Amino acid sequence: MRTAERAPVKAASVVSLRGAAARVGGRTLWSDVELDVGAGEFVAVLGPNGAGKSTLVRMVLGAVPPAFGEVRVLGEEPGRAGDRVGYLPQRRSFDTSLRIRGVDIVRLGLDGHRWGVPVPWPARFSARRRERDACVAEVIELVGATAYAHRPIGACSGGEQQRLLIAQALVRRPEVLLLDEPLDSLDLSHQSAVAALIGRICRERGVSVVLVAHDVNPILPWLDRVVYLAEGGVAAGPPEEVITTETLTRLYGAPVEVLRAGDGRLVVVGTPDVGRHAS
After folding, report:
1. Which residues are CB-neighbours of 94 under 8 A, at least 6 positions away?
2. Could you tell me which of 43, 64, 116, 57 has the C-alpha nearest to residue 86?
3. Long-range contacts for 140-146 (Cβ within 8 Å, ≥24 apart)?
4. Radius of gyration of the chain measured on its C-alpha atoms
5. Alpha-carbon distances of 125 from 41, 118, 119, 129, 137, rounded to whole Å
6. Of the residues 13, 59, 96, 136, which has the fewest C-beta atoms closer than 10 A?
7. Would you say 204 and 68 are in contact if contact means Cβ atoms under 8 Å apart?
8. Which letter does DSSP use for residue 175 in this model?
9. What's the predicted TM-score (pTM) here?
10. What is the mean pLDDT of the segment spanning 5-20?
């Protein structure tokens, strides 16, 4: 798309990409991405392995510059919005012997830059400490982790750990939440529960969510829009318009069929990389 043809940035957009392109190691992963994420919208970034999904999130963070085009986050260049953007990277694996408590993992989102040997708080700072403790407790309750927040993180299940990590990303009350594969390695029941949690936070708190996923099905009921990356091409729009036989066939340049199972789940067949899920 030529520069003159780019759509104007919408006034209500909290994340916008205009003609954006990503290049890694001399290879263009994707180009001509046009995207607006509005306040309180839930957007999924889908596509096969190697399509550049995580690169798009890192570009919004400011960790990867666009090869072409323009990216804006909360009206600024990526990386300048500070605490207004929360981020959960691809899933970390906690050793079962790790004794640090879940509540301390969440607290790292507030004061991780000062993590070290505890120092006694002077009396004049006690009100501030109570305020921070209340903030941590509030976000732990928000994600439904109060019952196990004081357990060692290594003793928590995968779904419990993921809720605590989401709390960590939310503890500074961001306006935008970037989640890179938050459902990876979870079983189906935990995927559905965590997806519902993220959807509820998006709707009730007005947080804009950009989530990278391999399987669209757990998050499908909550989505406003998807960005599908494949073979260097891109399609963006409502799920029912993007995850279709016609659109994916065009993106892959090969026959692809999208089916809907009796339980409402989408099944994509015909591409070696996607398998049975739309991703």
Report:
1. 153, 154, 156, 161
2. 57
3. 140/102, 140/103, 140/106, 140/164, 140/167, 142/167, 142/170, 142/201, 143/167, 143/170, 143/197, 143/201, 144/197, 145/102
4. 20
5. 37, 14, 12, 6, 18
6. 96
7. no
8. S
9. 0.86
10. 71
